[in-house]
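User: Here's a structure from my thesis project, written as structure tokens. My advisor, Dr. K., wants to see whether a designed sequence matches the one we expressed. Can you design one independently, without my sequence as a hint?
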């Protein structure tokens, strides 16, 4: 009898875990279906709610977000094309350095653009949001068993 209860609890746990993973994938697919303009608009509206942006700031942040969304879509399409064609290979140490350096340069440039648009208080809040988002991303990658 005890064995039967243990087996039933184990099966219920496995079923719950499997359903949880399916729900996570649905959200990512829905976001990938949005256009560049839609992604930028949503991000701008979220920042407007948090930072209480003026209409001029909204316009400038929208331009920055549009540029970011276009870059992300291009990178995603590039990675997807490489994956489908089988050209995926492990980068060398120099290539990894170049990629990380380019990514950090881009982040610095975006940070400077946002600093020009936002006032000091808004900028500090924005920095905290970015930091929190980065920390959450690291936690999610660790949960999935990836590096981070």
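Assistant: Designed independently from the structure alone:
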């Amino acid at each position: 009898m005890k064995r039967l209860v243990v087996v039933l609890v184990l099966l219920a746990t496995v079923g719950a875990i499997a359903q949880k993973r399916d729900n996570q994938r649905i959200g990512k697919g829905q976001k990938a279906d949005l256009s560049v303009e839609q992604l930028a608009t949503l991000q701008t509206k979220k920042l407007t709610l948090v930072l209480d942006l003026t209409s001029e700031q909204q316009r400038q942040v929208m331009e920055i977000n549009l540029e970011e969304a276009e870059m992300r879509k291009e990178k995603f399409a590039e990675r997807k094309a490489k994956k489908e064609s089988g050209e995926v290979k492990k980068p060398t140490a120099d290539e990894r350095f170049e990629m990380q350096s380019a990514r950090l340069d881009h982040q610095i440039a975006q940070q400077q653009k946002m600093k020009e648009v936002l006032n000091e208080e808004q900028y500090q809040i924005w920095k905290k949001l970015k930091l929190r988002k980065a920390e959450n991303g690291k936690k999610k990658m660790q949960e999935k068993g990836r590096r981070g």
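When you compare it with your expressed construct, this may help: The helical segments are 2-32, 36-51, 55-85, 93-117, 120-143.
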